[in-house]
Amino acid sequence: MNAAVPYLDLAAQLRPIRAEVDAAIARTLDNNSFCLGPDVAQFEKDFARFCGAQHCLGMNSGTSALHVALLLLGVRPGDEVITTPYTFVATSWAISYVGAKPVYVDIDAATFNLDPALVARAITPRTKAILPVHLYGHPCDMDALLAIARKHNLPLVEDACQAHGAKYKGRTVGTLGAISAFSFYPAKNLGAAGEAGALVTNDPAFAARAKSLREHGSTKRYHHDEVGFNYRMEGLQGAVLGVKLKHLAQWQAGRRRVAARYAELLADTPLRLPQQADYAESAWHLYTVRHARRDELKKFLDENGVGNAVHYPMPLHLQKCYANLGYKPGDFPAAERASREVLSLPMFAELTDAQLERVAAVVKDFFRK
Ligand SMILES: Cc1ncc(COP(=O)(O)O)c(C=O)c1O
Q: How far, in Å, CA of 355 to CA of 346, rounded?
């Protein structure tokens, strides 16, 4: 009987750093620094340095960071924001939260990211921002997107929620647009022990206002300059993330090893494997393969104890919550086809060679059937 291969094993990540994490949590409990506090402040400095950015503001989620980013840019009801239909729904939530309209354009089938040529065609006088997503950790074609943004004098917000440490032409993503958002949801490459996120920017005025917006619109206690939010990062999350950030480079190397090994092991299968564009160094958040018989393959992996997941089974333009936008099946063929074909295989730094070989053996069994 072969051992099951989990889709994700957070316990394996925690085990070697457990004492460090326990000590950081104990320190926060002793300090009573539960909302923001010294560990969050230190983490903000460290994560800004990791990204090569001037400012990082710890938030309670990536969704909140995206929301604040659009508020900082003054996106308002009636405005349009160009974005991808092929992402986790929270990218579009931020647009809806400020009362604006998500305007979707299709993806490039090779990278699953916004197709810059289509972005240019979707710009109208109402367009206020472009919101690309570095999906699965693979950077968007940023030079092409930034050229369009500059030409039309539009700000670009990076949804870097899946792309900690990914590089575009050697530059860390999250520093290429006006503002970026990161998620530290537990399953992310850098994951908190609960919900957390961050807004990253090089603009001091954006940073100052984001700091106020996340804390009830105030810079001085009980004095509120504008309507704000409770989007603060918890002290415990800052403490845990501070410990984990020290190990991130090593975990990223582990993910690259896993991706390289999959590429060897699965090369002679009919699967379409993820490729890095020549400008990209992926964060390998997910290892997402494609095949027309995805649902059968998924069932076979489930039956044989190989963890897997579908990211994402339904593009946003076909979701019930966005029926009011008036899109219909067929509007974005590349995104729709991807949603029928994609399957994410186990991807985490601690996967052993034996586990990777097991995944490949089960995939090969499926195609031999
Ligand atoms: C692409 C993308 N955008 C936004 C988010 C939202 O982040 P959070 O779950 O921290 O709110 C996530 C993660 O869940 C995501 O994957």
A: 9
Give per-residue pLDDT as tens, 280-326.
999 999 999 999 999 999 999 999 999 999 999 999 999 999 999 99
Closest atom of ligand 1 relative to the 162 alpha carbon: 16
Q: Is there an atom of ligand 1 within 6 Å of 301 CB?
A: no
Distance 65 CA to ligand 1 centre (A): 10
Residue 2 has pLDDT above 90, yes or no: no
Phi (first) and psi of residue 268, to 5 degrees: -100, 30
Which pLDDT value is given to residue 171?
96
**Centre of ligand 1 from the C-alpha of residue 366, in Å:** 32
1 pLDDT band, cuts 50/70/90, is low
**Alpha-helical regions (H) of the chain:** 10-14, 18-31, 38-51, 62-72, 90-97, 116-122, 142-151, 204-213, 235-245, 248-265, 294-303, 333-341, 353-368
CA distance 6 to 10: 10
The pick from 183, 233, 311 for probing ligand 1's pocket by mutation, whose C-beta has the most ligand atoms within 8 angstroms, reads 183
Answer whether 183 contacts ligand 1 (Cβ < 6 A): yes
Ligand 1 midpoint to CA 155 (Å): 20
DSSP secondary structure, 158-190, as one string: EE-TT-TT-EETTEETTSSSSEEEEE--TTSSS
What is the residue-averaged pLDDT of the chain? 97
Question: Is the CB of 355 within 6 Å of ligand 1?
Answer: no
What's the pLDDT tens digit per position in 124-144?
999 999 999 999 999 999 999
Q: Which two tokens stand for residue 314?
A: 């339904």
Contact predicate 35/335, CB 8 Å: no
DSSP state of 108: P
344's enclosing H/E stretch is strand 342-345
**Is this model's pTM higher than 0.85 or not?**
yes
Q: Which of 169, 114, 102, 110 is nearest to 140 (CA)?
A: 114
Residue nearest to atom 12 of ligand 1 (CA): 161
Segment 155-197, tens digit of pLDDT: 999 999 999 999 999 999 999 999 999 999 999 999 999 999 9
